[in-house]
Design a protein that fits this description.
Elements: H1 2-17, H2 21-44, H3 51-67, H4 69-73, H5 78-96
Length: about 100
């Protein structure tokens, strides 16, 4: 999970340097969501949990749930992928002729 967080953070951080105005809030929300998820999972890996650690975990899971919808907004369905593949195939056929 730590490596996943590093990879996604490394991808999102440069995108946040020069985003378009319309993208800024979406990228910021995605980065918050990933950071909260990674922090939560790192805290969950301790062998024993104390009340302090549980409160930290609670403080990480709340921002995750507030911001996770950003990924659902850009999620594509299988039908969309199938349609894109079909259109790609048609375009390749037209270019081959």
């Amino acid at each position: 999970m730590r490596n996943l967080g590093r990879c996604i953070s490394a991808i999102l951080a440069p995108a946040l340097q020069n985003p378009y105005c319309s993208q800024y809030q979406d990228l910021k929300s995605a980065l918050k969501c990933v950071s909260a998820l990674v922090d939560f999972t790192l805290m969950a890996q301790y062998c024993s949990q104390t009340p302090d650690r549980l409160s930290y975990m609670e403080s990480y899971v709340q921002p995750f749930h507030r911001t996770k919808d950003i990924f659902l907004e850009f999620c594509t369905l299988k039908a969309t992928h199938a349609q894109a593949d079909h259109l790609d195939w048609e375009l390749r056929e037209l270019m081959a002729d």
